[in-house]
Structure formats: structure tokens, C-alpha cells
Amino acid sequence: MKKIDAGIDADGPVGRPPWVLLVPALAGLAFLVLPLAGLLVRAPWSTLGTRLGQDQVLDALRLSLVTATLATVLCLLFGVPLAWLLARVRFRGVRLVRALVTVPLVLPPVVGGVALLLVLGRRGLVGGWLDDTFGITFPFTTAGVVLAQTFVAMPFLVISVEGALRGADLRYEEAAATLGAGRWTIFHRVTLPLVAPGVAAGAVLCWARALGEFGATITFAGNFPGRTQTMPLAVYLALETDPQAAIVLSLVLLAVSVIVLAALRDRWMST
């Protein structure tokens, strides 16, 4: 027993890793890191400030920040109650509902855009009625960008909040109930503060995913500068006409991703 314990510490097995695992591990690491390194190497650092100040870059950046923030607000508005339903309420078909909620995680974004068109398009199941009754149209508008981002980003929030709810101590909610607090009071006075870190982490992931959304946006909202052209779409367009501008925009998105990962590092490590 002592011989076994001698080679293991608190963090796991120690010693030289076998080359059968080390070689493919290093190859996988290189495969993930080298493209990012190539982006940094080929970046036009000398003209970076000038290119970031271009109107097309600023317009795409501004639109992306606004739409991603609005999409995150919608995800919080609808996603938190949905996560609470999945975590707290037992009903027939809960597994099916959870699977449907997570479908956008694995669904190709372009397919999501087509699905949004079939539902919210001018001839869609709901969009046709909205257009005829209220004159409201979503495709190829800024609102369409927000809806596309919300569709692909909400699962990140729901999963994070549901996990936090399942890990929360129910005794605090039970104590509040015995003191006469109503369900709504318990939810916003006890439950939400308990799961606030999970909600914050889910909101950050949701915002980052919305910021980087491409497929559903270009399919449902199009690629119109100043109206629906977000940063990923601007990268796609600039890659054909101005590759240096595409690299600059890619650097901005890369920086946002790194900041998000750094902000959530402590939460992931503790988990």
C-alpha cells in the first residue's frame, strides 16, 4: 500500500508520462495552439490602431456589442426560469425538454437560421401572422440578429444555471418557506442569491457565444453593414477583400475569448 501511495500525490499520479500518450497529447496541443499563434504572427501590429478605427470595423464592433448584450438579456429573462423549471419541477418528459433545450449546442448554426426563417420569416408559422397583424418582421433586421444570437446562446445559460440550482442547498429555501415566505419571495430573495455565481458565469458564456455567432445570423438576418453585419460576418466579408482587416477583427474576437476564459477560470478550477 505504501508503494502505491508513494507515486501518487494530491493532484494525481506523478512521474514521467508514457510516450504513447505524450506524443498525441503534444500533437493535439500544437493543433489547437498553432492556428492562434499564426494569427498573432501575421497580425498587422504596426497599423493595428488605424485599422481598428476604420468605420466598418467600428460599426461591426458596435453592432456586435449591442446585439450580444441584448441577446444575453433575453437569455436571462427566459433562460433562468427555464433552468429553474428543469432543476426544481418534476414532470413527465423533463428529459425530453432538457434534450430539446440543449439541441442548439450541437445543431449546425445554419440549420438554426433556416429553422428561425421557417418560424419567424414573413411566410413562417408565426412570422406570417406577426407581419399581417402587427407589421412586425424579424428577418434581415437588427432584431433578427438578436434572435439568432439568443437561439444559439441560451443553452449555455440554462446549463450553467441548472447546474448551480442542483448544487444549491435546499435547506435555505425550506427555512424561508417555514417562516412564511411565498414562492416568488423565496425565488428572488433566497434562490437567486444562492446561484448568482452560476447565473453570472452562464451570462458571460452566453454573451461570448452570442458575440461569436455566425451561421444562424447570416442565414436569418443577412449581412448588411451597419444593420446586421456583426464582427464574425465582417471577418467573413473582409477575408475576401481585405485580409488584414479580417485578421484585426479576428484578434478582437480572440481577445474577448481569452478574457472570458480568464474570468471563468476560478469557477472551472473549483468545479
Notes on the protein architecture:
It contains 14 helices and 2 strands. The longest helix has about 35 residues. The chain is mainly alpha-helical. The N terminus is likely disordered. About 75% of the residues lie in helices and about 0% in strands. A two-stranded antiparallel sheet has the order 1-2.
Features:
disordered N terminus, 1% strand, two-stranded antiparallel sheet
Main beta-sheet strand count, sense and barrel state: 2 strands, antiparallel
Distance from N terminus to C terminus (CA atoms, Å) equals 29 Å
Global shape:
globular
Count of extended strands: 2
Helix count equals 14
> Hey, roughly how much beta strand do the residues contain?
under 5%
Q: Point out poorly predicted stretches.
A: 1-8
What gyration radius follows from the Cα positions, in whole Å? 23 Å
**What's the mean pLDDT score?**
84
Q: Order of strands across the biggest sheet?
A: 1-2
Helix content: over 70%
Give a short overview.
77% of the residues lie in helices and 1% in strands. The protein is mainly α and 271 residues long.
SSE inventory with pairings:
Blueprint: H1 2-6, E1 8-9, E2 12-13, H2 19-41, H3 48-52, H4 55-88, H5 94-106, H6 109-120, H7 127-134, H8 142-167, H9 170-178, H10 183-194, H11 196-211, H12 215-220, H13 231-241, H14 243-270
Antiparallel strand pairs: 1-2
